[in-house]
């Protein structure tokens, strides 16, 4: 007997990150096309990348959702129908929308499934009912909603619900903030958020000692220990924030949560000895101190990030496997250079990492080197079980980086 689990929805900031997230177990990914999304600095997908990404995801049984969550002005709608047509041709599974006018336009010009973005700040059952009546198929609840509040919304309104389970937080009602507009000239609601709330600011004043602090910055969300509550509340999809984040992040977070959900699916509980390993894995990606934010109680002063709480991980992403199989070596693209004798950690799609000392480094012609260089393809000794899109970590101590 298997047990019901929610969908795991991971960010795909680029085609390669999509492949990494799906390979590490994401049931669905969300991404931006070249228009109408809220991450103008992400490597947004070109039409051909979109086609390839959707084909790859569908082959692996995963879904693709495209964000159209900018708030639009009238003139922005001009080429909107054409863009919707492209999304339909690519067979994307849904679009994620914030603006009421955009919901109308998607309904008018396409038959795409509509998910309401967290940007719309849906926090209660009345609003959820209203959005449902307007044709929305799924609601990504505002991050201010607790799991128990979400459970009540689910009971009152028969609609799919999605909640954030992991990643950076916004200090405003998701994006309804203009700090970035005023300080950087970048519009948060049109894809330009500069994350100004996460900067260090000085507190100054007459008679006061000048003080620097991250007083508007939130800790990062981590809902691993609350997965049972999400399941009990019937939340349909668990979303990971971070389209701008690294391959290492996309792979690690997808792996941890998909392993935990797969364990539950089989056993019906989370009492796994792997829980500590999953938590340790989450500590290996760059992050601020973790919080459960508003998931179990309203976020308060204990959710504010203090720079002294920055948790340095011991590892970096060293390389990504591109080819591996029967051969005695595997081909990898190096991101952080490492040397013969350094320790590498292969992160398989399932199960514990495998630790290896690197015994040789060759370029693609077979010439031996003592040290790899980033951005190049290298032959490394094969590791049993390695697969394309596996991430290889390196230890910062080996790289000579301070920890
Ligand atoms: S600057 Fe911070 S609070 Fe404002 S929209 Fe961006 S993440 Fe949210």
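-> sequence recovered:
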């Amino acid at each position: 007997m298997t047990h019901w689990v929610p969908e795991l929805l991971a960010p795909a900031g680029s085609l390669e990150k999509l492949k990494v997230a799906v390979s590490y177990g994401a049931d669905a990914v969300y991404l931006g096309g070249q228009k109408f999304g809220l991450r103008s600095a992400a490597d947004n997908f070109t039409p051909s990348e979109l086609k390839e990404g959707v084909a790859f995801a569908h082959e692996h049984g995963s879904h693709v959702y495209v964000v159209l969550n900018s708030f639009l002005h009238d003139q922005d709608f001009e080429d909107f129908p054409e863009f919707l047509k492209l999304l339909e041709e690519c067979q994307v599974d849904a679009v994620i929308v914030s603006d009421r006018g955009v919901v109308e336009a998607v309904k008018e010009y396409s038959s795409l499934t509509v998910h309401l973005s967290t940007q719309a700040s849906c926090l209660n059952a009345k609003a959820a009912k209203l959005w449902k009546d307007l044709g929305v198929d799924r609601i990504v609840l505002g991050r201010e909603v607790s799991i128990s509040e979400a459970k009540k919304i689910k009971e009152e309104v028969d609609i799919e619900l999605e909640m954030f389970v992991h990643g950076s937080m916004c200090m405003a009602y998701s994006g309804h903030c203009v700090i970035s507009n005023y300080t950087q000239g970048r519009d948060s609601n049109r894809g330009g958020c500069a994350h100004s709330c996460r900067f260090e600011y000085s507190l100054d004043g007459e008679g006061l000692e000048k003080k620097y602090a991250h007083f508007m910055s939130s800790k990062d969300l981590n809902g691993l220990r609350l997965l049972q509550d999400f399941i009990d509340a019937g939340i349909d999809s668990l979303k990971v924030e971070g389209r701008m984040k690294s391959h290492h992040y996309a792979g690690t977070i997808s792996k941890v949560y998909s392993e935990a959900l797969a364990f539950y699916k089989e056993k019906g509980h989370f009492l796994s000895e792997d829980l500590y390993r999953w938590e340790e894995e989450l500590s290996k990606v760059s992050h601020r101190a973790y919080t459960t934010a508003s998931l179990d109680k309203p976020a308060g002063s204990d959710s504010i990030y203090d720079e002294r709480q920055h948790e340095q991980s011991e590892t970096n992403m060293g390389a990504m496997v591109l080819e591996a199989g029967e051969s005695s070596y595997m081909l990898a693209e190096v991101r952080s250079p490492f040397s013969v004798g350094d320790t590498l950690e292969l992160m398989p799609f399932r199960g514990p990492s495998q630790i290896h000392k690197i015994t040789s480094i060759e370029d693609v012609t077979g010439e031996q080197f003592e040290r790899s260089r980033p951005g190049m393809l290298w032959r490394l000794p094969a590791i049993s079980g390695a697969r394309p899109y596996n991430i290889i970590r390196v230890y910062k101590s080996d790289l000579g980086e301070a920890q």
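The domain at 315-399 is CATH 2.40.30.10 (Elongation Factor Tu (Ef-tu); domain 3).
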